[in-house]
Design goal:
The protein has a five-stranded mixed β-sheet, with helices on both faces. It is built from six helices and five strands, in the order βββαβααβααα. Helix 1 runs parallel beside helix 3, helix 2 packs antiparallel against helix 3 and helix 4 packs across helix 5. By secondary structure, it is of the alpha/beta class.
Length: 202
C-alpha cells in the first residue's frame, strides 16, 4: 500500500439515545454531535498541504446539518481514512434513516460511498489492539491530546481539541506506516510539523 496523493481523514463522534416512542429504523437513535475532517494533499515537490475542519453541534439537534457539512468535505477522488471505519460508516448511514430529514441526508451518504471505493485506510487494521496502540504511540510522539477510550467531552472547546488531535494522530499513524525512510518521509513529517506549528500560532 502506498501513501495516496489525496487523503481525507474523518473522525465523527456519535451519541446513541434509546427512544421507544419514536417511529424510526430502530429504537436506538444515532446522533452526530461533532466531527473532524483532516485533508492531506501531497504536491509534486513532496510537500503535504493540510486543511482541517472541526464542527460541533451546540444544541444537539443539528445532526443532519453536520452530516451535510461532512459530505461537503468528501471528494470522490480522495482516499478515505479513519479509525474503525466500518463502525463509523454504519453509524453515518443510520443518521438520515432516523431523521425526519432523511432526503437531505442521502446526498452526503452517497458521497461517502463514492469515497469508500478508493481503497480506504483504517488504522484499526494496524495492530492486534484495533489500532489503539498505534494511535497512542503516534499521539505521544507528536504531543497530541488524543484520548481514545474516553467519551467526547460535553465542553465544545475540549471536544474540538480532542477531535482534532484524534484526526491528526490518524494521519501520523498512516504516514509512519506507509512512508519508507527517505526524503519523501522527511518532507511529509516536516509538512505536518509546519501545519501543527501554524495552528498553534494561529
Amino acid at each position: 500500500m502506498q501513501y495516496p496523493d489525496k487523503l481525507t481523514i474523518i473522525m465523527p463522534s456519535f451519541r446513541v439515545v434509546i427512544d421507544d416512542n419514536k417511529r424510526a429504523f430502530s429504537n436506538r437513535l444515532v446522533f452526530m454531535p461533532a466531527f473532524a475532517v483532516l485533508h492531506a494533499d501531497r504536491h509534486d515537490d513532496g510537500r503535504i498541504i493540510f486543511r482541517e475542519r472541526v464542527e460541533i453541534d451546540p444544541t444537539g439537534d443539528r445532526t443532519i446539518d453536520l452530516l451535510a457539512r461532512l459530505g461537503e468535505e468528501l471528494d470522490p477522488a480522495t482516499t478515505l481514512a479513519g479509525w474503525r471505519l466500518d463502525r463509523q460508516v454504519a453509524s453515518l448511514i443510520r443518521l438520515p434513516r432516523d431523521s425526519d430529514r432523511e432526503e437531505e441526508g442521502r446526498e452526503p451518504v452517497v458521497r461517502l460511498s463514492l469515497a469508500l471505493q478508493n481503497h480506504p485506510i483504517d488504522v484499526g487494521w494496524f495492530d492486534r489492539e484495533g489500532g489503539v496502540r498505534t494511535l497512542g504511540d503516534a499521539a505521544t510522539h507528536h504531543g497530541l491530546a488524543a484520548e481514545w477510550q474516553d467519551e467526547l467531552s460535553g465542553n465544545p472547546a475540549i471536544a474540538r481539541q480532542r477531535l482534532s488531535a484524534r484526526a491528526r494522530s490518524i494521519w501520523a499513524a498512516i504516514a509512519d506506516r506507509l512512508f519508507e525512510q527517505g526524503d519523501a518521509r522527511r518532507r511529509a513529517f516536516a509538512s505536518f510539523d509546519h501545519f501543527q506549528t501554524a495552528q498553534e500560532v494561529g
